[in-house]
Amino acid sequence: MPFNTGIAGVSHGLSSGELNTYCQNNTAASDYGKCYGTAWGKAVFVQTDTTTWPIDPTTGDSFPCAKDGTCTRYTATTYNRYLTTLFSFTGKQAIVQYIYTRSHSVLNIVGRITNLSGHPFPTTAGEGAYSFLFPAQVYEQATWPIYDPVENWKAHLNPYTITIGRVFYLRWQGTLFTPVLYLYAYEYNSNNIWYASFVKVVYAYESSPLAVVPLDYDRDYVQYQELRNAFGFSINGVDQPGWNADDMIRVLRELFPSRAWAVFDDRQYVLYLYNLTPDYVPDWLIEKLSPTAMKVIQSPADAAVAKAWLDLLNERNAQIPPQAELP
Amino acid sequence: MSDRQPAPEPPTPPIQSPGKKKVRIRKGDRWVEVDADSEIKKGRFKYVKFVDDDGLDTYWISPE
Questions:
Q1: b vs e for A209-229, b when ≥16 Cβ sit within 10 Å of the residue's Cβ?
Q2: B27 to chain A: nearest residue by CA?
Q3: Contact assessment for residue A8 and residue A200, using Cβ atoms and an 8 Å cutoff
Q4: Residues B22, B14 contacting (CB under 8 angstroms)
Q5: In chain A, which residues have their Cβ closer than 8 Å to the Cβ of B47?
Q6: CA A300 to the chain's CA centroid
Q7: Phi and psi at residue A128, to the nearest 5°
Q8: CB 3.0–4.6 Å: which of A1, A88, A131, A186 could bond A123 by disulfide?
Q9: Cβ neighbours of residue A297 under 8 Å, at least 6 residues apart?
Q10: How far apart are the C-alpha atoms of A267 and A184, rounded to whole Å?
Q11: Cβ within 8 Å, pair A296-B40
Q12: How many CB pairs under 8 A join A and B?
């Protein structure tokens, strides 16, 4: 196939099922700082007061939702909060075709869809909502729901209600060529705010050998400069195109000798497995890649290593059902 | 007297390891017969397991 489709889904505390996810940011409330109904990750809460809610190096963060694990608390305000990298290719482009965001937030939306305060939004630039994705921001309509027939945006405010805050939906379909896509939230330097979100991006890229290994962009990927020349990064751990399967195997062997990973050779249609056997390869990955063969470069010495690869891969591709079960 | 030639001997069956099954797979542009150890099902596909020429445990898509 000349093109692959990548799907990146990132959740910050919002699942497809729970419709009343919110946090309490009224400082007078007895449950101040608590978050409710979070699933698939954590909500985001900005609270800079570390005197009232200190972060102890041993006991951790005393802020209620950070303490109970339902939010990620930030203690510094910012205009544009970098949340994650959805994909980052070197020398290859993806074609972004579809963006969908749903978010719950306490921040105001000031009429136009470009004022996406507190709502995570994919962008090609290192900033928040104001990107070249919105070349005609001054012409946008200010009434909800919004359909922009020129740029093909659809946006909906409060299609349902939540206990505290607003609900915001946004969808865009089009064509955007880019080697990188980040997720930012435009917080406008606000304190005592929260948001929860689910973002989905669909993109295409040329068929390539793939490194199938879920990596942490900041921890595992960036520090190894040589990886940048071997293959790209994708938050789903699958759509990570490189140039040469042999090179990718060599690099991965060197960098991750004790982890599990796979390399898909798109010319031979062979999926090479390292510290893995086909038992650990989920069916959805087989359906996506349709390999002619799987070859075990190295059997797993420790089943936990293979299981960790599978679990992380399933978690990052939770939007692709059904998930494989181990025998 | 007949000048008919005797019928050719039937081909000797290939030596097969115990517990293995001869399976024909499509490798590139040709059919190859391999000694399959076992079969597994993944998604829509069925794969046969054997040790390939490169010495690696290999699971090849089964044409059946």
A1: bbbbbbbebeebbeeeeebee
A2: A292
A3: yes
A4: yes
A5: 278, 293-294
A6: 28
A7: -85, -130
A8: A131
A9: A249, A272, A273, A274, B56
A10: 36
A11: no
A12: 39
DSSP labels, A271-324:
EEEES--GGGS-HHHHHHH--SEEEEEE--SSHHHHHHHHHHHHHHTTTSPPPP
CB-based contact B60 A290, cutoff 8 Å: no
Question: Cβ distance A98 to A201 under 8 Å?
Answer: yes
Residue written as token pair 């305060």: A117
pLDDT, tens only, A142-173: 677 877 777 787 888 889 999 999 998 888 89
How far is Cα A99 from Cα A136, in angstroms, rounded to an integer? 18
CA A282 to each of CA A44, A65, A138, A210: distance values in angstroms, whole numbers, following the listed order? 31, 34, 47, 16
pLDDT single digits (tens) A96-150: 999 999 999 998 765 555 556 778 888 887 665 555 555 455 555 567 787 777 7
User: Would the CB atoms of A287 and B60 count as touching at under 8 Å?
Assistant: no
Compute φ and ψ for B42, nearest 5 degrees: -130, 115
Smallest CA-to-CA distance from A32 within A12, A47, A48, A17 is with A47
How far apart are alpha carbons A127 and A131 in whole angstroms?
7
User: Per the CB < 8 Å rule, is A294 touching B43?
Assistant: no
ipTM over 0.85: no
Closest CA to A274 of A293, A255, A244, A295: A295
Residue A257: count of CB within 10 angstroms of its CB: 10
